[in-house]
Each structure stands twice: as structure tokens, then as C-alpha cells.
Design a protein that fits this description.
The chain is mainly alpha-helical. It is 54% helix and 10% strand. The chain is built from three helices and four strands, in the order ββαβααβ.
Length: 140
């Protein structure tokens, strides 16, 4: 049986020959198993992070309430219609993002929570412009 000689480098670039037997090298059959383990670990970590993102998005969706406005008492003009439509549209988009995510689709080019937060900011602005009071955000 032939032994392979491998040059090992020591500090400051000096080299010396130290025979290293093939049997001392990591077994080739372990490499695919290690890759599978790393891939599985990465998937589990990613899944945990993504499910946390979904939970935060669902919590944010609970804040889509505008208090203190009564549609029947409002003066209806193009401005109020615009903000009423904005209330409906932003909440609908946020719900759709979450539903798509739960069905395995990525709703947009940004993370789910960021997309829902962006829609909440639009919702909150429309609520305030209609004279309403948006739901309070918890400080967590």
C-alpha cells in the first residue's frame, strides 16, 4: 500500500515533509452525511426564523383597527373616499400577504413582517387622516 505524503506548513512559511496516511484523512463517506446534516440544520433554523416572522405579522394584523370614526357621520367627498379605500386596501393586502405566506408563497420582495408593517403604516395614516385613532402598538 502506498502512502501519500502531504506537505504541512508551519509558522512563517517553512515546510517539512510529514507523512500522513490515507487512513488519517476524513473518510469520504462522511462528507455527504455532513452536507446533509448541515443542510437539515440550516432548514430548521430558517423555518424557525420564518415562523417567527409569520407570528409577528399576525400580531401586527390585529392592530388594523381604526377607532373613533363613524362612516355614516362623515362628510363624503373624494378625500374621505381615498382614505376609506386606503384603509380597506392596506388591510386586505396585509391579509393576502399572510395567506400567501401560509400557502408557501413569498408575498413580496421584502420579509413578511416588513410588508405587513408597511401596510399598517399606510392604514394608520389613513385612519388618522379620517380623524380616527389607530389601535395602540404594544412595546415588545
Amino acid at each position: 500500500m502506498h502512502h501519500i505524503l502531504i506537505n504541512r506548513r508551519v509558522n512563517q512559511g517553512s515546510t517539512f515533509k510529514n507523512p500522513l496516511k490515507i487512513s488519517e484523512l476524513p473518510s469520504l463517506y462522511l462528507i455527504p452525511k455532513m452536507k446533509a446534516f448541515v443542510a437539515l440544520s440550516l432548514m430548521l433554523c430558517l423555518t424557525a426564523c420564518l415562523s417567527n416572522d409569520a407570528q409577528k405579522a399576525k400580531q401586527m394584523l390585529k392592530l388594523f383597527h381604526c377607532n373613533g370614526i363613524e362612516s355614516s357621520q362623515m362628510q363624503h367627498n373624494s378625500v374621505t373616499q381615498y382614505f376609506e379605500q386606503s384603509l380597506y386596501s392596506s388591510k386586505s393586502k396585509a391579509k393576502a400577504y399572510i395567506e400567501k405566506y401560509e400557502n408557501g408563497e413569498e408575498p413580496s420582495e421584502m420579509p413578511l413582517y416588513d410588508a405587513v408593517t408597511q401596510q399598517y403604516d399606510l392604514y394608520k395614516s389613513a385612519c388618522q387622516n379620517l380623524g380616527g385613532i389607530p389601535a395602540k402598538e404594544s412595546s415588545s
